[in-house]
Hints:
By secondary structure, chain A is mainly alpha-helical. Chain A has helices at 26-35, 42-57, 61-75, 80-93, 118-130, 155-163; strands spanning 94-99, 105-110, 140-145. Chain A has 6 helices and 3 strands; from the N terminus they run ααααββαβα. Chain A starts with 25 loop residues before the first helix and ends with a helix. In chain B, helix 2 packs antiparallel against helix 3 (47-74) and helix 2 (15-41) crosses helix 4.
Amino acid sequence: MTVSAPAPICQPEPICTAERCQWRCALDVIDELLRQPGAVTGAEMDQLLDLRWQLGQATAAEVALRLFCTLRIGMERRHYLAFFRIRRWLENHLVSVCRSADGTVVQEVPVRLDHYCVEAVRRVCLCTALSQPGGAAGTRIGFEFVNWPTGRRAVREVVAALAV
Amino acid sequence: MSTTKTTTTATKKDTRLIEALNLSLADTYALMSLTHLAHWNVEGPDFFPLHKAFQEQYETLFEAVDEIAERVRALDAYAIGGLGTLAKTAGLEEFKSPLTQKDYVAALIVAHEKVVDDNLRTRDLAGGGGDLQTQDLLIKRIQWHEKTLWMLKSYLKG
């Protein structure tokens, strides 16, 4: 009986190319962490698997970011490089979206994960959005995936739009 | 002797190898520039050792750039140059400076890994074409990058 290998959840081509995101795929990094004997605790393993699932689905950026921040606080000291790779990958695949009260998108800004807490990241994104032309109409800010094979826009387009 | 001549002539016509060597050249130049940037801007309690280590690294990379470019010329081809061309060819992501000490080291690790990957392909192309001199040059380059990766990764272990 022939057993074929399952298709990888993360299929970055063609949107996520090496030119756009050369940081190793976050799912690979998580897999590598999970493979290392004794590298993670049982609770961390559960959360890493949750994060892996969220990144594979790419539908709930807010949940993924919250999970990442929780894991980062507890694990970054022991696995700095791994979390650096995931952090950079998230920065290349997340965008913060500022909306008005009626839900209209008034501004989109790239996400920088310089802080360890989602609300701190949100605050920085909101300040950036509000400082842009038209951003003052924004009342709430959330996170969405970009650069994903489902056809989301690239972070570089968001950056280019901000520069105009 | 005749075998050597044939091999050299064949290698000189191998445009794939020249392109790969020029990519290694661009990678090395871009990495040198990033390491120089880290040398200038790194801050924190480990400033002195990191500042010194980064200096040693970009100086080594500067010498390597010359060696690779001269190897391209020895193969009767032209080395690429100019900051824009080198940066575009290398495709290394620039640092969003300023970074923390650890982020500079981590970002350099990622850049070194990309250079090693490209150099491995160049080495294999040279080996496949029987160009042992180019292969030897790439082996030396890969060894140095791997040693540097070990040192940088050791710094991050805590």
